[in-house]
User: Fold this.
Amino acid sequence: MAKGDPKKPKDKMSVYAFFVQTCREEHKKKNPEVPVNFATYSKKCSERWKTMSVQEKSKFDEMAEADKDCGPAKGGKKKKNPNAFQRPQSGFFLFCSEFRPKIKSTNPGISIGDMAKKLGEMWNNLNDSEKQASYITKAAKLKEKKMKKTRRKRRRRKRRRRKNKETVYLSPCEYLRVREHRN
Assistant:
């Protein structure tokens, strides 16, 4: 959907978002001609929010709770089809699956991002002949194997469709007889 599409479902607003919205409406009522500078406006709103008491904030809490109750949540993750086509791993991913356990054993507390950086550096340090000799050729073999498998599956599906679509063409008289016989 387009960005300004009125049919687009709206996100649920937070307590602070309701507060900012009401502040903006107040500002527009007081000064309709004055344009709002977002940076200074947001700073003023945050300062005002920090100085507010819990009782004053409770009004916005109620507004947010009421907003949560109306309508289903937007979006959500789609469930993946387990039978969907999955590409075979590339040479780099084969390399990563081989070296990831080695790096983890030498650096037990390493983060995922640092692990990826290290693997990328190691991959870039390999010369092309080493990459080609082991990982890229394995990836090509896996790709070919996967392609053969998918071709077989497609052929089987085609055959099943052909079997199921065996149609018998009847003349109008024969069709009426078969129809009467079924009833």
User: Anything to note?
Assistant: Residues 15-69 form a domain with the DNA Binding (I), subunit A fold (CATH 1.10.30.10). The CA atoms of residues 128 and 136 lie 10 Å apart. The chain has a mean pLDDT of 80. The longest helix spans residues 128-164.
